[in-house]
Amino acid sequence: MSLTMYGVGLDYPDGERTVTALEDVSLRVAPGELLAVTGPSGSGKSSLLAVASGLVRPTRGSISVGDSDVTDMPGRELSALRLTRIGIVFQQPNLVGSLTAAEQLQVTEHMRGRSARKARDRAVQLLATVGLAGKQHRRPHRLSGGERQRVNIARALMGSPEVLLVDEPTSALDRERGARIVELLREVTSHYGIATVLVTHDTRHLSHTDRAVSIVDGRLSDAAPHEG
Ligand SMILES: Nc1ncnc2c1ncn2[C@@H]1O[C@H](COP(=O)(O)OP(=O)(O)OP(=O)(O)O)[C@@H](O)[C@H]1O
């Protein structure tokens, strides 16, 4: 399933005025495609992910996940859609200190109606997919920064999403580890046929993506420059 945004605008109220965070944003991400969105601080990258995920409603325009128009979808339906069709990888892994890697993935699985045993099996399998075979019993303090980010990605894959939205996953990592995280995103995007949007300020990672757009003052433009 693809992600489609058409003519999307987002205004935030700011006292008497409004701040326009997104203006006339149109894009389509196909299944199996990894799209990078780059742009300077405050350009609208997080806002783009917030509206794409349905966490924030756009002020203008429309958004579809596959053939579902989510623009005005009632809150409950939207929550259900997020649980099963949209995966979100936040910048900080936000792992729970007392839980093992597998438990981080299992903890919300009752909401998807999976049995504890099936959830456990899937968690272990996904951890292996992201390169953490045998580390399912580790708690976050015994994982490296890159490994924690891998758990974060595996957790987002638990619901078998059709759309994956990833916010600056490499910002806390050195170049080498960051590059490996983007490679992993490339692999899972192709393998599972997911439409993935990767927000990154780091243009060095663009060679692993299919396409890149840049965002400036809330507006998209083609191809961000490759550097380094
Ligand atoms: N809740 C809010 N209320 C008012 N203005 C906001 C709000 N969130 C973001 N903005 C404004 O919207 C614009 C876009 O912000 P956004 O967070 O999407 O940018 P960004 O590209 O993700 O920035 P960064 O790279 O620094 O995280 C900025 O001008 C920001 O100040």
Give me a quick take on this structure.
The protein is an alpha/beta fold and 228 residues long. It is built from 6 helices and 10 strands; from the N terminus they run βββαββαβαααβαβββ. The protein binds adenosine-5'-triphosphate.
CATH topology of the largest domain: Rossmann fold
Shape assignment: globular
How many alpha or pi helices? 6
Second-tier CATH architecture of the largest domain: 3-Layer(aba) Sandwich
CATH class of the largest domain: Alpha Beta
The residue ranges in which pLDDT falls below 50 over 5 or more consecutive positions are: 224-228
Spatial strand arrangement across the major sheet: 6-7-8-3-9-10
Helix content: 25-40%
Q: Your description of this structure?
A:
- This protein is of the alpha/beta class.
- It has two domains: 1-85 and 161-227, Rossmann fold; 94-160.
- Helices cover 30% and strands 27% of the residues.
- The protein contains six helices and ten strands; from the N terminus they run E-E-E-H-E-E-H-E-H-H-H-E-H-E-E-E.
- The chain has helices at residues 45-52, 75-84, 101-106, 116-129, 145-157, 175-192, and strands at 3-14, 17-29, 34-38, 60-65, 68-69, 86-89, 163-167, 195-199, 211-216, 219-222.
- The protein has a six-stranded mixed beta sheet with strand order 6-7-8-3-9-10, with helices on both faces. Strands 2-1-4-5 form a four-stranded antiparallel beta sheet, covered by helices on one side.
- 41% of the residues are buried.
- Bound molecules: adenosine-5'-triphosphate.
- Residues 12, 14, 19, 21, 39, 41-47 line the site of adenosine-5'-triphosphate.
- Adenosine-5'-triphosphate (ATP) binds at residues 12, 14, 19, 21, 39, 41-47.
